[in-house]
What does this fold into?
Amino acid sequence: MEEELIINNSRKLYLPIYLMMIILIAIIGFIKFYDLSLNNLAFTGAGVFIILRICITEIHRKFESYKITPHYLIDSKGIITKKTKKNFN
It folds into this structure.
C-alpha cells in the first residue's frame, strides 16, 4: 500500500480576498461612524457581497486538493472532480 499525502489550499492563498473584504467593512464602518450619506441599497449590496464572497472562497478552498504519492500527483478541482495525473518517473 502506497503512502498518500492529501493537501488542501491554505487560507493564506486567499489573503488578498479577505483583505479586500476587511477594507470594504472598514470603509462602510467609517461612513456609518461619521454619519455620512450611504444609500441603503449600497449598504445591503456590500453586505451581501461580503457574505457571498466568504462562502464562495471557503467552498473553493475545500474543493481543491492535491494527493501526492511516491509515483504520481493527482490534482483534484471542483465539485465534479477533474483529475490530472502526472507521473514522477
Residues 42 and 48 are 10 Å apart (CA to CA). The chain has one domain: 5-87. The first strand starts at residue 5 and ends at 8. Residues 5-87 form one domain.
